[in-house]
Amino acid sequence: MRRVLGLFLALCFVSVPAGAETLVAAMSSHQIQITSNYTGSQLTVFGMVERDGRSVSRGDPNDIVVTVRGPKRMLLVREKENLGPVWINRTQRRFPESPVFLFVASNRPVSEMMSAEMAERGRVGLGNAERTAQAWFDDASTVRFRDSLVRIMVAKGLYDYRERGVTFLSNALFSAPVDIPATAPTGTYTVDVVLYAGGVQLARQQTNFEVIKTGSEQRLASAAYDLPVLYGLATVLMALLLGWGASVVFRRD
Amino acid sequence: MQIYLPIAELPISVLMVLGLSGAVGFISGLFGVGGGFLLTPFLIFLDIPPAVAVATVAAQVAGSSMTGVLTYFRRRALDLKLGGVLVTGGIIGTVLGVLFFNTMRRLGQLELVITLSYVTLFSVIGGLMLYDALRAMLRVRAGKPARLKRKGGTHPWWMGLPLRQRFRRSGLYCSVLPIATLATIIGFIGAVLGVGGGFILVPALIYFFRIPPAVVVGTSLFQILVTMTGATILHAVTNQSVDIILASLLLVGGVIGAQFGGRAARNLNVESFRLLLALLIVSVGLRFAIELLIPPSEPFSVVLPDGAR
Q: Which of A109, A195, B28, B151 has the greatest number of CB atoms lying within 10 Å of its CB?
């Protein structure tokens, strides 16, 4: 009887984990400004896991996964194939609505937190973050293109996974630095902070930040788009004046 | 020191760009070519989006040819009438070239078109120049005059086509049609590849129309100036891909380098000068050919959307 009661109580705690833990997360800054000397930037995600005093602590440690997604665009992946002796782009696959920047950080490798299948289902980790529901039915060729997309974006420095990028400062307090390379696009970035224990999602928190051009960078870029004729004429005028200036300065007589 | 390029959307080292454009400017001053054919591949290699590289180099070539045009104009080595015909053809070619460029970009074959054009253009022209330069060198070794004398009174058939005009400063009496066609082709190539086309126009005018070399260089620079000015504005309007910051950096390095190159050219003998230029053009062609022929270590590539604000 006692054993049954104990099992019942244990089940109660396992099946009603919601509300037992709450997650608070914040960014060190909500805006990155691109100025003429911009070479990339670093932000920090701070957060705290608050546990309800009445609930009993579980055996599984808390795990945090931070996922930062940049602006979404259509990405094109091409494969070079040989046509006779020359190598040219033959096949291409479109990946609409793909983030141009993707950063995942966790306090320990995702593979230690949960099974591979759980990670796929929960869209945890660099390769899974952008999995769509239909990805389960993808043929081998699509999988190859999708894997290549991630591999190349990692090589370009736009995708990154840090398996120990989240540091617990105490039992409850954690922080994760996020490096934004200079090549990361302008736009809005979303930051997802998710708390797991034993592979089960307990709480999640979303915040965001934006990358914008400011000052002369912003003025030049918007002039190029909004006043293209004037911008073109100004560029040419500047080029011709510099050319004329050089011929005057270096004139031998 | 790094500076962020507003259109290319990446930071770049100012000293590196100045050094690079200075070196290319030196070569361009040395050989009397625009140097765009060296600069564009370099910029693409530095991760600048190809569309931005091509459009920005057009602005740079316009500026650096301005210096040359003024110099030749002062020396009266510029045939404005011939230049006018070249410009008319060049403008038609540039418009067609920019349209073709944008179509290929949409179809995703721009990279292939650029690579293939570089390979064929540079191998053929560089090869011809190399052959010619080596032959001239051998003739000098053998104690004969470097050039075969041209026979008076004979004209190739294309000079006798309708619409013949007299070009006094070039000492030419020739149909307008073949000149305009040549200029159209060069304007087209220039707009697609971001090169001025001087390295094609100069030998073509000398070999096909027998115009004195001094006038050819000045007039070809004039034609390049006008077509590249047009190409810059067209690229700015249709693509928004001209980076004004990058263009000004390239110009500053380029015009200074060109002045030193021009001075160095005076200490170089004509035959080795031609051989060096031919070798330079052939090696650029070979570099692109290797890229096309060697199995890539990474067959996949990701195309990032450019011009995304």
A: B28
For residue A116, what are the contacts with CB-CB under 8 A and spacing of at least 6?
A: none
Partner-chain contact B6 A183, CB within 8 Å = no
B250 neighbors B5 (Cβ within 8 angstroms): no
Please list every residue in chain B whose beta carbon sits closer than 8 Å to the beta carbon of residue A39.
2, 4, 11
Query: Would you state the pLDDT for residue A99?
Result: 92
User: Lowest-pLDDT range, A5-14, A152-161, B91-100, B245-254?
Assistant: A5-14
Q: Binning pLDDT at 50, 70 and 90, where does residue A14 land?
A: very low
- For chain A, what is the radius of gyration of the CA atoms? 25
pTM score, two decimals? Answer: 0.78
Distance from CA of B181 to the nearest CA of A (A): 26
Give B 155-184 residues with CB within 8 A of chain A: none
A9 in B contact zone (CB under 8 Å): no
Check if the beta carbon of residue A98 is closer than 8 Å to that of residue A149: yes
Q: Is the ipTM of this complex over 0.90?
A: no
- Chain B within 8 Å of A226 (Cβ-Cβ)? no
User: What does the pLDDT look like over B212-255, one tens digit per residue?
Assistant: 777 787 888 888 888 888 889 988 998 888 999 999 999 999 88
Per-residue three-class SS string for chain A: CHHHHHHHHHHHHHHCCCCCEEEEEEECCCEEEECCCCCCEEEEEEEEEEECCCCCCCCCCEEEEEEEECCEEEEEEEEEEEECCEEEEEEEEEEEEEECCEEEEECCCHHHHCCHHHHHHCCCCCCCCCCCHHHHHCCHHHHHHHHHHHHHHHHCCCEEEECCCCEECCCCEEEEEEEECCCCCCEEEEEEEEEEECCEEEEEEEEEEEEEECHHHHHHHHHHHHCHHHHHHHHHHHHHHHHHHHHHHCCCC
pLDDT tens-place string over residues A164-175: 999 999 988 999
Chain B residues within 8 A of A92 when measuring between CB atoms: 108
